[in-house]
Amino acid sequence: MCSPAETFKFYHQHFKKRGIHLCYGPWICACLVGGILSCEQSKEAAAILSPEEALSSFILADPNLDIQLVAAEPLVQDPVAISFDGAGRMWVVEMLGFMTDIEGTGEKDPSGRVSVLFDDDKDGRMDRSIIFLDSLVLPRAIALVEGGILVSENIPLWFANDIDGDFVADRKVLVDSTYGGLGMPEHSANGLLRGIDNWYYNAKSKYRYKPVEGQWIKEETEFRGQWGISHDNAGRLFYNYNWSQLHADLVPPNTLQKNTHHSPTSGIDHGLTLERAIFPVRSNTAVNRGYVPGTLDEEGRLLEFASACGPLVYRGDVLPKDYSGMAFICEPTANLIKQNAIIEDGFMLRAEGVYENKEFLASTDERFRPISLASGPDGALYIVDMYKGIIQHGPYMTPYLREVTLARALDKPIHMGRIWRITPKNQRPRDWPDLTNASASELVSHLGDANGWTRDMAQRLLVDLGDLTVLDELTQQITTGNPMAQLHALWTMEGLGVEDPEVFFNALETGDAKVAAAALRRLIVLLPYDRTIKPKLEQFITGKYKDADPFLKLQIILSANELDASVAIPLATDFLESFGSLPVARDAVLSSLQDRELLLLQRLLKSSGSPVYQQSREIFLEMLATAITNKREHTGIQTVLREIENTRDSAQVWIRDALANGILNARESTKPGPIQLDRMPELFRRSDSFGADNEVQLTLLKDRFSWPGKALDPLPDKVKADFDKTLYAGGRQPFLNLCASCHGTQGEGMKRFAPPLRNSEWVIGEDYKLAMILLHGMEGPVSVNGKEYGIPDILPEMPSFSTLQNEEIAAIATYIRNSWGNTASGIAPGAVGQVRFRTQGKISPWKEAELDTVTFDKEL
Fold first, then answer.
1. pLDDT tens digits for 125-152?
2. pTM (2 decimals)?
3. Buried residues in 655-669 as b, exposed as e (16+ CB within 10 A)
4. N or C: which end of the chain has fewer CB within 10 A?
């Protein structure tokens, strides 16, 4: 290890000369003095292992599992993604142009390709390879589709097909010239995952694709993830970001976008775990954040995720039964794969690491780079290993990483790569049916197969065949098949264009909540075209809702827009009573109430006299007021203002504040300028309408409106703080969803939960400290405005919000720094990103003593 003197010499040479001044909290000093970088180790050339030698480098946490080589260089080179066709042949995307040297020379040369690998003797090891399509620039994703493949290049998306059956593409047709976006490998669209609903979804993208009548259509959807995308047996999408290991959708795609007056903040991109710690079995000094104190431990091992990618929800059947539904995450910079258990609670999901202080798979081989994962036709778990020294893209090659990479000779050799398979020990290679030669009836029989790959492939091939002679067999699967067969049969019918409502009504009665939810989704699509569906559907819903599984209840609420208001509004009220404390429940209700927001508001305020205070009710009333204001319809806005004016009871002040805040948080109209009213609202006549603590909110609220005779007074300096108004307004809803349950909706703090945010030096003090707290959490006791808060007055610690995007954290921070009497500059998303980068490796909450000693160079 380096001595302390050598370590600080390294710091001065590599950081100070570039103007980087790191914060010297006790935790950082300990890392520096401990010699976070192993100087001698960084200078040693990294070993190059043969596939056989690499096998001995692997450490599997489960002793009952085995890892086997499937393919290696030169048969496969620089693999980044794989897929299997109906006959079990492996299709590999090879990114040969990625970082061929330390400079990234020739990156835009057309050296990439798609190859097909064949296991001729069925021994589980690939025997030969045919280049299907070459001359590609940085290809990174593939989907096997009817008649050929979809493959993403640097920016364009192509369809390529083989006409004469020799596994060499004869034609290449442009599908989307803008698919890749930036064209940077780790920040461009990828994935091409066929969802259970027959759409192709992508990570790092807000678009999905689907073939319709021989043409590929492109449709906007929610933005998801960074590299890699998967789905579970229910069809829910899973993805991640390099710094946050696992996210998922709690609701079907695009279902929260139906109300144009509402902007949902939950349900999609739901962070499943705050766990960031990883446990490599070797040093990882060749990582671009290696020079940041706290990134590596005293042995040079990466402390937390830096390149989480390639998530896979395992749906195979060869691993032990308890592996079904587990999520696996690649971490190539740390040479490991993490395993998470997915816990389902109603319609909510969360994840927990399966192992403590170790990983599902780790390697002592520095070139082991798991990039993506796949489940195969044999039910096994497949690992795509790029087997490469340089894994960081050129634009992020720091001087530190360049030096370590060259010293350790990680820039060579190039064009290697391995595919690995994990099975139970002593598992002989399994045969699988050649689905490409199966009849339509045989494919139907496979829809309930124990292997998820087989079910998915059978569904795709049935849709591609377009054979309607098997409709009776599909209907029989829905009636008598297992839940997986029922689910896939439903979506096969969707792909075939079947519009028989009786089939879907039968599926509603199967008893499985996920099958019934899928059937309901299909009926809602057909409802506008068949008037007989609506009364029958409403009868089913009103009769079954009370005893339905929460998963089905959520889908019923998401479908409420198509039901009569006399049915939809009571359902929404009941759903909020049961689940209103969950942000996704509130978003689901509001997303399905286009133009009915005022009806629900009036019901909530008057149906049972004066509503009893609950924080979730306050938050939802505010959301309703925001949606009503966003609609810009005067009747609704005037009704909200009258409710505010008429709220005099001190016990109901929360209603007044919620409605006022809702108006304040409404987005700016496409037509600039204030909302026109016919008179000055009474609440603006009373100087004490909101109290002194809310002067900023009241002033901004007045600024939203105009009326005859209103003076165009400029905003006072106290209100014109240095913050982005759009960012400020965007912070209120995430604050309510994530922070208000402990800190109160007005930042007042809550006994037994959390201290106040009003007049808190942690909120209005140094912006980087607030960002650090939001990113990593804070442990008590803590002093706020001269008073110390500790157990039992507050919870032991505030959780991390590390799963949030930089933009979301910046919005929350800007909002709380300028609310309830607080005035401070805003925080930009870029500043949050910088703090996230510089506090890499901090996997425990901050303590007050630590934060007191932290300083940041503002010029960094």
1. 999 999 999 999 999 999 999 999 999 9
2. 0.90
3. bbbbbbbbbbbbeee
4. C
